[in-house]
Amino acid sequence: xxxxxxxxxxxxxxxxxxxxxxxxxxxxxxxxxxxxxxxxxxxxxxxxxxxxxxxxxxxxxxxxxxxxxxxxxxxxxxxxxxxxxxxxxxxxxxxxxxxxxxxxxxxxxxxxxxxxxxxxxxxxxxxxxxxxxxxxxxxxxxxxxxxxxxxxxxxxxxxxxxxxxxxxxxxxxxxxxxxxxxxxxxxxxxxxxxxxxxxxxxxxxxxxxxxxxxxxxxxxxxxxx
Length: 225
Hints:
Layout: H1 17-29, E1 30-34, E2 40-46, H2 49-58, E3 65-68, E4 77-83, H3 85-93, H4 114-125, E5 126-133, E6 141-150, H5 153-167, E7 172-176, E8 181-186, H6 188-198, H7 211-223
Antiparallel strand pairs: 1-2, 2-4, 3-4, 5-6, 6-8, 7-8
């Protein structure tokens, strides 16, 4: 990769819905690297190629998307890597550095764009689950749960506070020792609030969301009608 490739180098400089989403996704599945010659790169590596193509479009990049074919049960991963000292510096100014996994901080996201940032992080390091509880009873209950994971407890604590103030959710944080990370989890009512928050009216005009996760919410909501 070279810095001569086309890219919107001011992308992380000004808040927009697209920038907030990509920043949220980068917080989950992105990283900065500096090579031995001083070249600086920011990258996003995911298994959803279609979404990475949409991210590539909004940052106006003509960089090629790399592929790492999974072996056995491993997923095939796709990577967008962009060389730009300016963009890496902008990401650092927003609170992201080369070793962000355990030191990840939540940037000061304008309220107008918080839903886009949260949706981006959710698509990267979030999950939505629908299943039955009280299976031992005659009448089972189907519930939905949303979770955000991170190696940084501080990040999740700040996210929990922001969502509480903006969406009136509660949620609980617990440590997942099996994966050496923390989990912020929400129950049924809060999960539905988060759906409405993340997929608000403006997202209908956007291509920046993982359809497979959005569909889980929609199927559950239809079950409740």
